[in-house]
């Protein structure tokens, strides 16, 4: 074996800053997207396949990525969803008996462009100080001028509807059809582990495309409704917001996660906004205001629910807050069977501290029956 | 109400003298804890018998008791301070916990109405009683290795019959795995079982089926009164199960754990901590994971206290575990506390790293002649180093460069093993240098799969090694002129030292340095901030790395550096590196005081050290902390970056001192005594000339560089002759020989171990009394801070001797000679700062054995005994801020203070425990006695007679 030097590659940010690095593997070309970072030290495969990250160039802050390869069952959707990967050290060789492939092959199958050897810490500080912005990662280091032009034409995440890009085209079922309950899930970017968590608690899930009408979901006669996580700005999701309003009106048990949580807020007339650089990691502290207890949560969102509006809304109660910046992490409706959280209780990746929320959802369904 | 308002006065128990398995990490924990209580306006009372600690400084607690760690002392303290509301026993290791249990069993806490905080007795009992612990784990559904308890020899035999071999014996209620062993063969079982039963205070051993080769992990947890639990750090052992974690190379974050398995482990850890009892504070849980596709997790043990690993985890993450654990113990909840690093986010969170740390233990087998050097279940390391880098390879390299064992990193120094059988044997029987041997094995072409079969080290690590070797091979095909920027940058990013690259290219280190400076491949400094830069952090805790370039829109290229240099005048203090015999916590004590004194003088202070156990590497100690190897290249780059007024080398022991020459050569100012004087004192020839000129007697001596020369010298000097190498620590290789044959053997042996050394041969003053003096000198005046007399006669290393302050039987005439000589020598050496001089006294004549113009092991002891801040004074003198005459010296001591060495021989069953000129003790304690009629003194003194009669 011989030491292998890698080809040059770089990241060009919308503000003109360039971070130099090396191309991972053989995949060549350019990839555009919003540059965001995730601080998790485990769970790269889960992150890369999470539909909520659709269209984003992912900076992983952990020093090494790829050490334990990939394993099909740990994917959170059927393909890689990030637009590109930026890391410090990429492990071409992996070590794990359970793994079925290397991360290099896993990414290559999706033709994903990845770059390593970047000063990711400097890049994260840059985004932290200047806010999330678009960028391009490229192995075509000679075509900078052209890339700059193309980058300028990439739309801003603010106002961008992306759920349609990741949602299922056709309804499908998940779980055991002889379960006690039926849950209708609106897929605006759903993660597999959410389905596993609902199904394992005795519910049969039917997953509907993002633009399904309430009537079509209700026709299945579900016991409860679920609004999933997903990418992009929640505001343009008029159809989903409408569905949420109707579920609430009928006072059917409803649970929302992440984008679904934002949709529920919007359905209640509470606005959302784009955060400076969002929350992405598996170490986010949340306080449950109902129990006074803390939980370490997995988070991944660039938009948030307006806290003032949520608090002054007579229908809503803020149930969870993020301890670092006091943003809204969870709400419930005072007089309706509806609650939602901004974070990811299904983990994968991340801690299992918040799995109780799924129990609560099933309890809510049980009570309503 | 956040905290428990009933707690107004708290007793903290320290960990006593340093022994293997319990080192200065507990000084770090205790100091943090005391500061943390003080922040909340709580009165603190401290008991610890170890004087060489920061925690026992008068400024650290309201009342400091330097007393033996016994229930008798506890009762004395509780009588004198009936106001004590609670005791916090979790900061002083197993020693403090054991004392706490003993006091509890005797009903002392109850008698004095003292609450136990930070732990509960049931939790300690459950975790220490392996049988109960096991029952509990199985009850809550946590897997354990098959195990059984034996309280008798016969029962033990039965169990072995059932389990088969290999199996593991562990003695209950012991420290650092004392009495633990892996038994591979039935014929070894009887002896090891007997030993385990003997060592356990309750004559109980656990016999486990050995989970050899399973992957080993440690998690550091914190819990508050609301039952919130966070994991501060997950540490992965590169050396799998079978080697004590204190003797393992460990890595954080975990490198080879998937999220699925890690989260399972996290859930188990939380469940375990909640199951053992109701307490608020820190906890350490150890797990093993099967390396096969099952990824089964079993629990190994849980420690309901701050541990060695929590000190490492604090330094690895920046999250001050002891400090926060203390706050939790007094009633705060995690969500009420702020992240100490960012000061803007919550303490209820789990730190995330954007770098890698590697810890390598430091062993001292050379001090334990005849010891079994194979690593196993019982900890044998005396210290540790930590390397921080932006990759595992860089961190590993930095850790190996921190060890001070004359290696420059992995490979590329021509020192590797080249014998196939030797390499295989060294891999099979893990010893101190296995971390290097893996590289040698790859270099030799031994397949990784074979190395993995033998060592069970995860393939991921072995491939990282392999890549390093491939890079070495690649670079070796270039010359300094032909090597391109990319490859050189990659080599630097992977942690290769300039010196190693020079070796590969066949050029000088300075050429590599110049080339990389030219190509703008410069070290940059990154922050340890708990949050991977997600939030802005205020804490000045840095490590170095090499990064790729960034280009601004106008085309300017730069490399980002987190460490901004202020325009204040600065002082760099060089730390003492890993603890080892002869250079321990005393020097860290000195460094910390040096830093504090320099700050008082208005300097910005910069600390450089690589020992994660210490107070000096607490980010609260210096204005800026560089957690870096005390290794030339790293130090020089920091100095070039910070541009300090000068560097203090005389507080960090031999580690710092030996860099003086190079610093001086590069025109960097050494604060205090100059390099020339340091060198003069070390050079026996010039030093004796100096003594002669000053009419000061010294034992006849000469220098030899070969055995022939040594024999010739022996003709001039009378036997016995003391032989010792120059520039060594703690009397390494020192021996008294009585005839030519012994002399020849020893000289040959020494020159083999330390080639090209100048050996010193002294006529040995048989039966002499030994004494030593420490003094502060400003170049004009000398103030002797203390004179100590050794109770054992000359010939026992000063570090291993019991000694009294002041001397117990030296007459006025002798004392005057000591004082005169000390003053004369200090001035003649142009000492500016501290000096330590050792004397041998025979027939009322005081001879000089050696002089060291630097802080010595005894300085902290004397400072504690007299209640005076001598290191602070000496630092101000060094800096030229003060003269000796500016201080108002007011030493106070009723009676005598005895320095008592502590040994760790129980970790080395077959070692010769006989004391001699080579130091073997690992720590010390202080004992105050009112008069020489004290029993303790009498005992020591009668043993002296025994030595003399030999």
From TrEMBL, chain A:
- In short, the EC number is 6.3.5.5
Biological process (GO), any one: glutamine metabolic process
Q: What pathway or pathways are given for this protein in its record?
A: Pyrimidine metabolism; UMP biosynthesis via de novo pathway; (S)-dihydroorotate from bicarbonate: step 1/3; Amino-acid biosynthesis; L-arginine biosynthesis; carbamoyl phosphate from bicarbonate: step 1/1
The record, for InterPro entries, names: Anth_synth/Amidotransfase, CarbamoylP_synth_ssu, CarbamoylP_synth_ssu_N, CarbP_synth_ssu_N_sf, Class_I_gatase-like, CPSase_GATase1, GATASE
Organism, as annotated: Spongiivirga citrea
Reactions the enzyme catalyzes: L-glutamine + H2O = L-glutamate + NH4(+); hydrogencarbonate + L-glutamine + 2 ATP + H2O = carbamoyl phosphate + L-glutamate + 2 ADP + phosphate + 2 H(+)
Q: What class of enzyme is it?
A: ligase
Indicate the family of this protein: Belongs to the CarA family.
Q: Which domain of life is it from?
A: Bacteria
Q: Name the encoding gene, please.
A: carA
Write out the function statement from the record. Answer: Small subunit of the glutamine-dependent carbamoyl phosphate synthetase (CPSase). CPSase catalyzes the formation of carbamoyl phosphate from the ammonia moiety of glutamine, carbonate, and phosphate donated by ATP, constituting the first step of 2 biosynthetic pathways, one leading to arginine and/or urea and the other to pyrimidine nucleotides. The small subunit (glutamine amidotransferase) binds and cleaves glutamine to supply the large subunit with the substrate ammonia.
Put simply, this protein is called: Carbamoyl phosphate synthase small chain
UniProt keywords, alphabetically:
Amino-acid biosynthesis, Arginine biosynthesis, ATP-binding, Glutamine amidotransferase, Ligase, Nucleotide-binding, Pyrimidine biosynthesis
Residues holding L-glutamine:
52, 230, 232, 259, 262, 300, 302-303
Q: For the Carbamoyl-phosphate synthase small subunit N-terminal domain, which residue ranges apply?
A: 7-138
Automatic annotation (TrEMBL), chain B:
Under PROSITE patterns, the record lists: ATP_GRASP (PS50975), CPSASE_1 (PS00866), CPSASE_2 (PS00867), PROKAR_LIPOPROTEIN (PS51257)
Name of the top EC class for this enzyme: ligase
| Superkingdom of the source species | Bacteria
Q: Which GO terms describe its molecular function?
A: ATP binding; carbamoyl-phosphate synthase (ammonia) activity; carbamoyl-phosphate synthase (glutamine-hydrolyzing) activity; metal ion binding
Q: What is its EC number?
A: 6.3.5.5
Known catalysed reaction(s)? Answer: hydrogencarbonate + L-glutamine + 2 ATP + H2O = carbamoyl phosphate + L-glutamate + 2 ADP + phosphate + 2 H(+); hydrogencarbonate + NH4(+) + 2 ATP = carbamoyl phosphate + 2 ADP + phosphate + 2 H(+)
Keyword set includes Phosphoprotein: no
Q: In which pathway does it act?
A: Pyrimidine metabolism; UMP biosynthesis via de novo pathway; (S)-dihydroorotate from bicarbonate: step 1/3; Amino-acid biosynthesis; L-arginine biosynthesis; carbamoyl phosphate from bicarbonate: step 1/1
GO terms (BP aspect): glutamine metabolic process; L-arginine biosynthetic process; pyrimidine nucleotide biosynthetic process
Q: What does this protein do?
A: Large subunit of the glutamine-dependent carbamoyl phosphate synthetase (CPSase). CPSase catalyzes the formation of carbamoyl phosphate from the ammonia moiety of glutamine, carbonate, and phosphate donated by ATP, constituting the first step of 2 biosynthetic pathways, one leading to arginine and/or urea and the other to pyrimidine nucleotides.
What is the protein's name according to its record?
Answer: Carbamoyl-phosphate synthase large subunit
Organism annotation: Spongiivirga citrea
């Amino acid at each position: 074996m011989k030491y292998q030097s890698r080809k040059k590659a770089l990241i060009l940010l919308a503000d003109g800053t360039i971070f130099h690095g090396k191309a991972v593997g053989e995949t060549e070309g350019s990839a555009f997207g919003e540059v965001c970072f995730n601080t998790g030290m485990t769970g790269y495969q889960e992150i890369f396949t999470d539909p909520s990250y659709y269209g984003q160039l992912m900076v992983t802050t952990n020093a090494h990525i790829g050490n334990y390869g990939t394993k099909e069952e740990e994917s959170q959707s059927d393909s890689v969803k990030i637009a590109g990967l930026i890391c410090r050290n990429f492990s071409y060789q992996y070590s794990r008996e359970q793994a079925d492939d290397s991360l290099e092959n896993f990414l290559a199958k999706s033709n994903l462009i990845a770059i390593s050897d970047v000063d990711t810490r400097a890049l994260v500080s840059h985004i932290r100080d200047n806010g999330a912005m678009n960028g391009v990662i490229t192995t075509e280091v000679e075509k900078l001028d052209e890339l700059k032009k193309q980058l300028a034409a990439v739309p801003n995440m603010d106002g961008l509807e992306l759920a349609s890009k990741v949602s299922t085209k056709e309804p499908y079922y998940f779980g055991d059809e002889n379960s006690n309950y039926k849950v209708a899930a609106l897929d605006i970017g759903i993660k597999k582990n959410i389905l596993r968590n609902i199904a394992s608690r005795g519910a049969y899930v039917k997953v509907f495309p993002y633009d399904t009408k309430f009537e079509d979901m209700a026709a299945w006669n579900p016991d409860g409704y679920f609004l999933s996580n997903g990418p992009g700005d929640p505001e343009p999701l008029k159809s989903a917001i409408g569905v949420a309003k109707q579920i609430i009106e009928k006072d059917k048990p409803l649970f929302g996660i992440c984008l679904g949580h934002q949709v529920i807020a919007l359905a209640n007339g509470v606005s959302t906004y784009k955060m400076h650089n969002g929350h992405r990691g598996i170490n986010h502290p949340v306080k449950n205001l109902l129990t006074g207890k803390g939980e370490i949560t997995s988070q991944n969102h660039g938009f948030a629910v307006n806290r003032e509006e949520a608090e002054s809304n007579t229908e809503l109660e803020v149930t969870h807050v993020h301890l670092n910046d006091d943003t809204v992490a969870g709400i419930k409706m005072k007089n309706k069977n509806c609650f939602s959280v901004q974070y990811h209780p299904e983990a994968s990746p991340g801690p299992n501290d918040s799995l109780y929320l799924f129990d609560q959802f099933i309890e809510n369904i049980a009570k309503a029956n | 109400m956040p905290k428990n308002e009933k707690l107004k006065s708290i007793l903290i128990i320290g960990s006593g003298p340093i022994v293997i398995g319990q080192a200065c990490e507990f000084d770090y924990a205790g100091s943090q804890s005391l500061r943390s209580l003080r922040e909340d306006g709580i009165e603190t009372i401290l008991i610890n018998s170890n004087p060489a600690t920061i925690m026992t400084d008068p400024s650290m607690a309201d009342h400091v008791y330097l007393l033996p760690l016994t229930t008798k002392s506890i009762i004395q303290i509780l009588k004198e301070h009936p106001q004590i509301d609670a005791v916090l026993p979790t900061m002083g290791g197993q020693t403090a916990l054991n004392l706490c249990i003993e006091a509890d069993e005797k009903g002392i806490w109850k008698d004095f109405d003292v609450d136990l905080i930070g732990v509960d007795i049931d939790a300690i009992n459950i975790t220490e009683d392996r049988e109960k612990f096991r029952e509990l784990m199985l009850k809550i559904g946590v897997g354990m290795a098959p195990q059984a308890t034996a309280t008798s020899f016969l029962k033990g035999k039965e169990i072995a019959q059932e389990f088969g071999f290999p199996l593991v014996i562990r003695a209950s209620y012991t420290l650092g795995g004392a009495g633990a062993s892996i038994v591979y063969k039935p014929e070894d079982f009887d002896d090891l079982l007997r030993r385990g039963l003997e060592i356990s205070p309750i004559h109980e051993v656990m016999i486990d089926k050995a989970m050899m080769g399973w992957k080993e992990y440690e998690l550091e947890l914190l819990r508050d009164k609301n039952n919130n639990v966070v994991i501060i750090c997950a540490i992965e052992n590169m050396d799998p199960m079978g080697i004590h974690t204190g003797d393992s190379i460990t890595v954080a974050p975990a490198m080879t754990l998937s999220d699925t398995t890690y989260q399972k482990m996290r859930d188990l850890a939380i469940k375990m901590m909640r199951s053992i009892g109701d307490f608020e504070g820190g906890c350490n849980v150890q797990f093993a994971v099967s390396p096969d596709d099952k990824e089964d997790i079993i629990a190994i043990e849980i420690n309901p206290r701050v541990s060695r690993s929590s000190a490492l985890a604090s330094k690895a993450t920046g999250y001050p575990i002891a400090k926060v654990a203390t706050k939790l113990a007094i009633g705060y909840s995690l969500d009420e506390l702020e992240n100490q690093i960012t000061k803007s986010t919550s303490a209820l969170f789990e730190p995330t790293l954007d770098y890698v740390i590697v810890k390598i233990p430091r062993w001292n087998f050379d001090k334990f002649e005849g010891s079994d050097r194979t690593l196993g279940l019982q900890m044998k390391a005396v210290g540790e180093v930590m390397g921080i880098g932006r990759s595992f390879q860089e961190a590993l390299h930095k850790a190996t460069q921190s060890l001070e064992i004359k290696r420059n990193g992995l490979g590329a120094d021509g020192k590797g093993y080249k014998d196939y059988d030797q390499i295989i044997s060294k891999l099979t029987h893990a010893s101190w240098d296995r971390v290097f041997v893996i590289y040698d094995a790859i270099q030799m072409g031994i397949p990784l799969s074979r190395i993995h079969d033998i060592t069970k080290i995860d393939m991921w690590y072995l491939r990282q090694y392999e890549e390093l070797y491939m890079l070495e091979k690649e670079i070796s095909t270039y010359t300094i002129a032909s090597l391109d920027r990319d490859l050189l940058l990659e080599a630097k990013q992977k942690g290769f030292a300039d010196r190693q690259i020079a070796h590969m290219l066949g050029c000088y280190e300075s050429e590599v340095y110049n080339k990389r400076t030219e190509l703008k491949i410069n070290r940059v400094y990154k922050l340890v901030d708990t949050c991977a830069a997600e939030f802005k952090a205020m804490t000045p805790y840095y490590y170095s790395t090499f990064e790729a370039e960034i280009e601004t829109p106008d085309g300017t290229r730069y490399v980002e550096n987190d460490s901004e240099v202020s325009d204040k005048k600065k002082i760099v203090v060089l730390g003492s590196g890993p603890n080892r015999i002869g250079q321990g916590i005393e020097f860290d004590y000195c460094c910390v005081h040096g830093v504090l004194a320099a700050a008082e003088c208005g300097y910005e202070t910069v600390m450089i050290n690589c020992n994660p156990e210490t107070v000096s590497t607490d980010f609260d100690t210096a204005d800026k902390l560089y957690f870096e190897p005390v290794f030339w290249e790293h130090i020089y780059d920091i100095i070039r970056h910070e541009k300090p007024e000068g560097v203090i080398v005389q507080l960090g022991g031999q580690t710092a001192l030996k860099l003086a020459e190079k610093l001086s050569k590069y025109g960097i100012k050494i604060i205090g005594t100059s390099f020339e004087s340091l060198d003069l004192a070390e050079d026996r020839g010039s030093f004796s000339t100096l003594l002669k000129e000053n009419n000061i007697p010294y034992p006849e001596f000469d220098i030899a560089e070969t055995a022939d020369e040594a024999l010739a010298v022996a003709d001039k000097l009378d036997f016995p002759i003391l032989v010792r190498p120059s520039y060594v620590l703690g009397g390494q290789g020192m021996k008294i020989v009585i005839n030519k044959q012994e002399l020849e053997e020893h000289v040959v042996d020494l020159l083999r171990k330390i080639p090209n050394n100048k050996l010193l041969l002294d006529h040995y003053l048989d039966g002499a009394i030994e004494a030593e003096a420490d003094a502060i000198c400003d170049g004009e005046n000398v103030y002797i801070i203390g004179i100590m007399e050794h109770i054992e006669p000359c010939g026992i290393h000063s570090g291993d001797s019991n000694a009294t302050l002041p001397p117990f039987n030296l007459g006025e005439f002798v004392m005057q000679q000591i004082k005169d000589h000390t003053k004369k020598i200090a001035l003649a050496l142009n000492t500016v700062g501290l000096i330590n001089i050792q004397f041998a006294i025979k027939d009322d004549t005081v001879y000089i054995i050696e002089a060291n113009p630097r802080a010595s092991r005894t300085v902290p002891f004397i400072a504690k005994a007299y209640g005076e801040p001598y290191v602070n004074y000496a630092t101000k003198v060094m800096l030229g801020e003060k003269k000796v005459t500016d201080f108002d010296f007011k030493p106070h001591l009723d009676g005598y203070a005895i320095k008592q060495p502590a040994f760790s021989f129980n970790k080395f069953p077959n070692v010769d425990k006989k004391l001699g000129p080579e130091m073997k003790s690992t720590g010390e304690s202080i004992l105050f006695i009112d008069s020489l009629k004290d029993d303790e003194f009498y005992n020591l003194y009668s043993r002296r007679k025994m030595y003399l009669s030999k």
